[in-house]
Design goal:
With 786 residues, the chain is of the alpha+beta class. The protein has 25 helices and 27 strands. The strands form five sheets. An eleven-stranded mixed sheet has the order 1-27-2-3-7-8-9-10-16-17-21, covered by helices on one side.
């Protein structure tokens, strides 16, 4: 027996030793794919010497005597810190994810391959001016050198059993097209939703259900916008208030809608030091690593004058600062949500004339799949609900991408920056800028389609014969709308309607936000008084007051009168929590906020349920929330005015509609024995920020994820925050005074979980603690030489 015990102990000890050795080997292998931080690196094709100095958070300051060398070094650090992220972006746009992840990625690949962006990218590269192509090629060479210089391939490829593919110039264009999908990809579902509503409502009903503007809007050319004056129609559509079929699944749209970004500028007339203040926080899906890569660049121009640009880059894209400051001008973006995509219904002859292109999709561990794409002069064809549409999208235009964003590096004035913005090949954005002389201005950066006719018709599917469907190319710079140095000394955009005048028609409505967030930002800026500073402007970013939802709380309290809560203990508790657990903010500890929000969305579901179900049959992303972000104003009018004709037949009163919605919220929140008093907003709005591999492989999630912090903030306020969506960066700066600038972002510089920079700075983003914009004292130096 003693021998058996001894033998058993030896076996166990041996197995433990083997496990330790395997763990050590795995750890050493993973460490081998960490970025090189120090030393000297000999790089082919270098003209001079470049230094990459990283601070304690891994933020690099890249300096050299030649811009091409800077591009090379930028590619090198991007690849070493973020190559897998770059690879996913190019594959998303190119429809090439199945090559990494197998057949489960085919549906997404087929949808994106429809646009043939890799073929378009190759054509653009061939036509690119030599100096732009050289700039891009030096970046690409740096990317491949950075990848090849790792001691082991990035850890993600070891886990999925695939070798990384070298970077190509076309890949950098695909990365920008990935942002087109992210920022404009919802417009198809929007048009399909609106098309269904048009087909199932009278003109009067449609005008009521889809108002073009509301009192929440805060356009740049008007102080106030009137509430919709359209009278409530005498009768609702036939589908109104009917239940949705149980077999239809509708996407959950009540959490983090695809609405993103705030930016604003305060003129020198209202800043304490006379320079403009520019603030920007772009709202995107958040994962690890973060979308953006921080850095500072320093190099001389052709005259030998030194320039320093600080801000964020997009790994894989052409190596320019996307949002930042160059010492003379600072700039930022928000998604403009203009009308940049049309669904054009084609007749049989036009469909027959389409040119067929064959695309081959490589699939991991399976045979390649051939896809036939049919192309027309208006765009590729998509069949939906028995109809054939051409997808007419600015992303397909030959000038949808270019290197013009690079010109912002040397812009010396506001007007110069605004002119550059109108020529940039990017997904069309609200461009906000200010200069060191105190000037501020706004315009659209990116393409604006030049239509034969402007109007709301283009927000619905159209026939090719309709004037609004006929557009080719883009507007000239002189025709772009522009607002410069308003008397108020401030400008702000937040994805809602920018202009009420003629310029608004040129931009069009491709899915504007309701406007409550922009309204709150505008008023916050006004409240800063006649003089403010960078910290004051940054503080607007953190405003989580629930101004938009407060009236919905009052509606719920009114519905929950004494008769409604009599012998209804859960309703009584709901009412008490609305009163006592309400701070007026989307605070993590507030139950009242969560109940109010859920009440509004549940009311929407009751009344639009049948329509949402039918729209979802056409496109899984379609629904009333996709058709118009202004639906809360429509519901508020109905609840407040209580028209008898619009009361659904299964209800005795509008109060009963609201009580049923409240009861459904209660049932959801107390199921499985949960206490209603524990249903805080923070419990619902807990961060779920992870590396994509962590989401795919559950046992690695903890290792590859950020803490599940309970986040304050929500969608209709400046501090936008969701579980996997929110402020992907916060930047506030006066150009020329970057040392005073403030910056936050979720996650850190590195995408490697063993890097000390994997989550560096994340805690400050969670808390909103201001951190310096400029990199700090160097602790690592990597020198590139010939």
């Amino acid at each position: 027996m003693q021998r058996l015990k001894t033998w058993t102990l030896r076996v166990v000890a041996g197995l433990l030793g083997l496990i330790v050795l395997l763990a050590l080997a795995l750890w050493l292998f993973l460490r081998a794919s960490l970025a090189q931080l120090d030393g000297t690196h000999s790089a082919p094709g270098m003209i001079g010497t470049v230094k990459v100095e990283r601070d304690a958070r891994g933020v690099p300051a890249i300096s050299g005597a030649n811009r091409l060398d800077i591009a090379y070094a930028t590619g090198f650090v991007h690849a070493q810190d973020r190559f897998f992220q770059m690879d996913l972006l190019r594959r998303v746009a190119g429809g090439e994810l199945a090559e990494l992840f197998g057949a489960k990625a085919l549906p997404l690949d087929k949808g994106h391959r429809l646009h043939r962006f890799r073929a378009r990218a190759e054509q653009m590269i061939a036509a690119m001016p030599p100096q732009d192509r050289q700039f891009l090629e030096r970046y690409v060479a740096g990317v491949n050198d950075g990848l090849d210089s790792l001691s082991a391939r990035p850890f993600e490829y070891a886990l999925i059993g695939v070798k990384p593919r070298a970077w190509m110039p076309a890949d950098s264009l695909l990365v920008v097209w990935a942002m087109y999908f992210d920022l404009q990809g919802s417009q198809e579902a929007r048009e399909l939703s609106r098309g269904w509503l048009r087909d199932h409502a009278s003109a009067e009903q449609l005008a009521f259900l889809l108002p073009e503007a509301t009192q929440w809007d805060a356009p740049l050319d008007a102080q106030d916008v009137a509430a919709p004056a359209m009278p409530i129609p005498a009768a609702p559509p036939a589908w109104w208030g009917k239940p949705r079929g149980a077999e239809v699944k509708v996407a959950q749209l009540d959490f983090a809608a695809d609405i993103g970004s705030n930016n604003w500028a305060v003129a020198g007339s209202r800043s304490k030091d006379g320079g403009a203040i520019v603030s920007d926080d772009m709202h995107l899906g958040i994962q690890l690593p973060n979308t953006w890569y921080r850095l500072a660049l320093q190099f001389p121009d052709e005259k030998g004058v030194q320039h320093r640009i600080v801000g964020v880059t997009l790994p894989g894209a052409p190596p320019v600062v996307v949002v930042g400051s160059n010492g003379h001008v600072a700039w930022g973006f928000t998604n403009s949500y203009g009308d940049y995509m049309d669904l054009v219904a084609l007749d049989a002859d036009a469909v027959k004339a389409a040119v067929e292109k064959r695309e081959t999709i490589l699939v991991k561990d399976a045979k390649a799949v051939d896809l036939v794409v049919r192309e027309t002069p208006l765009g590729p064809l998509r069949e939906v609900d028995g109809k054939t549409y051409a997808i007419h999208w600015t992303a397909h235009q030959p000038n949808s991408l270019n290197m013009n964003p690079r010109k912002l590096e040397l812009a010396s004035s506001l007007n110069e920056a605004l002119d550059i913005a109108t020529t940039m090949g990017i997904p069309s954005q609200n461009f906000m800028a200010g200069d060191d002389q105190g000037n501020i201005g706004w315009t659209i950066a990116g393409l604006l389609p030049k239509r034969a006719a402007y109007g709301a018709q283009s927000t619905f599917p159209m026939l090719a014969s309709e004037p609004a469907a006929n557009w080719q190319g883009s507007l000239a710079t002189a025709d772009y709308p522009r607002v410069v140095n308003p008397a108020s000394g401030q400008l702000a955009t937040a994805n809602s309607r920018q202009l009420m005048g003629a310029g608004g028609a040129i931009i069009g409505d491709g899915g504007f936000d309701l406007g409550a967030r922009a309204h709150q930002v505008r008023d916050d800026l006004s409240a800063l008084g006649p003089k403010t500073d960078v910290k004051g402007a940054y503080g607007v970013t953190m405003d989580d007051r629930a101004l938009f939802l407060a009236p919905w709380r009052e509606r719920a309290l009114k519905a929950l009168d004494d008769a409604a809560v009599d012998k209804q203990p859960l309703r009584a508790q709901f009412r008490a929590l609305l009163k006592d657990s309400w701070s007026g903010h989307a605070s993590a500890d507030s139950v009242g906020y969560r109940l109010t929000r859920a009440f509004m969305w549940q009311t929407q579901d009751l009344l639009f349920s049948a329509a949402n179900g039918e729209m979802a049959k056409i496109d899984g992303k379609a629904g009333m929330a996709s058709a118009s972000a202004r639906w809360p104003v429509v519901l508020a009018r109905l609840i407040d005015e209580q028209p008898a004709a619009w009361l659904p037949p299964d209800y005795k009163s509008w109060q009963q509609v609201q009580l049923v919605a409240i009861d459904k919220v209660i049932a959801e929140l107390v199921k499985d024995g949960k206490a209603l008093s524990n249903a805080t907003w923070g419990a619902r709005n807990a961060a779920s920020i992870s590396h994509p591999i962590g989401n795919a492989v559950p046992f690695l999630h903890t290792w590859l994820a950020a803490p599940a912090d309970q986040l304050p903030g929500d969608s209709h306020m400046p501090r936008v925050a969701g579980q996997t969506f929110g402020q992907s960066e916060r930047l506030t700066v006066t150009p020329g005074k970057e040392e005073q600038g403030i910056f936050n972002m979720p996650g850190g510089q590195s995408g490697h979980p063993l890097s000390p920079f994997f989550l560096a700075g994340h805690a400050e983003w969670v808390s909103g603690t201001p951190a310096p914009l400029l990199p700090g004292t160097p602790v690592h130096t990597l020198t590139f030489v010939r």
